[in-house]
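re: that chain from earlier
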Amino acid sequence: MSVQPSSSMETQAPGNYSPPKDGRSAQDQAIENWLPINASRNAKWWYSAFHNVTAMVGAGVLGLPYAMSELGWGAGVTVLVLSWIITLYTLWQMVEMHEMVPGRRFDRYHELGQYAFGEKLGLWIVVPQQLIVEVGVNIVYMVTGGNSLKKFHDTVCEDCKKIKLTYFIMIFASVHFVLSQLPNFNSISGVSLAAAVMSLSYSTIAWGASVDKGKMENVDYDLRATTTPGKVFGFLGALGTVAFAYAGHNVVLEIQATIPSTPEKPSKKPMWRGVVVAYIVVAVCYFPVSLVGYWAFGNAVDDDILITLSKPKWLIALANLMVVIHVIGSYQIYAMPVFDMIETVLVKRLRFPPGLTLRLIARTVYVAFTMFVAITFPFFDGLLSFFGGFAFAPTTYFLPCIMWLAIYKPKRFSLSWFTNWICIVLGVLLMVLAPIGGLRNIIVKANTYKFYQ
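^ sequence. v structure.
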């Protein structure tokens, strides 16, 4: 993959571009400006807030009560709180490292990796993991969008003919064939804002309806599985589900790239303000849904809390519609860096001319691919666990810490050194253990699944 140096930090008025200072021709600069990530730098701090909320508070929040039923009260609360603290810390590191080099901005995750590990090694360490995360999220959100559309249809029209999940996923995908043509991050800001509002709304409905329904009779808080292997695999899978819920790091540098920056007013200040607001929203969404959902239903809760809640019908239907709107925005947030990578390769390496035709074909093929995989493997909770552990743990929990140690080189045995190594150890354990549970869940469900049902 051919990668050009990062774009220079603006030294003119915010939002304007300074002339290229890294030896690139005007043509190269024009291509750089055409790509989705670098196309616009006029975002405000609140763009950071709702982009991060949209990126993080997604389908994962609806699976957290199910994860609690696999973990139990003690381990469940501990994992949730630790994940919130660790991921906020690593997100702060990413924001700080965005423009650690004077006059330069790391607009993409892999550019920061290349600076930390070297041009070639950094590319191979970061890009595969980032692609797995972003493509994986898009596949899961295809499944989530289709499931929520189906649930909405079945709730408002119980007497209607049952329609296969496959068709609902295709309906959901049809929206993205259109929205994927929006050129860059700032152009999807309206979609992202609507998605962020929806995430807060349906999370509130999920825990509010659980409170209204009250604790089930004979509610059971024992672990969901009855056998020792089942409990172990369930525990591991739940770790992956929690990891999936904290996933915004994979697009944080790309979001920060949309904010103007000067030496006097670096982008990290408005970006961090937005991140703090976003994490407050994350806490308001995650903790009530997880704890109240598990309190109300115990180990009888479904892998999607809205499926467990069936009344009042109009409210559950509304919540499912909100989920659909939210994952539409989330899909676009995670797809944009993928579009940037695809278009970078096509234009810079394969020398295709940049323009509408290239964008139309490349992005349509990508949306069709994620739709096809989602239709083929719609195992919602298993997908959350597998992708959460396998890919989210490195890019969210410990890769920022490794880069921080490599770049800043804090004094050995200092607080920063200890903190980063603790995060690295916990993150590696999560990466190794969580996919095991998710993969087993997928295999178990695949035994009874008929393709394209």
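The mean pLDDT is 82.
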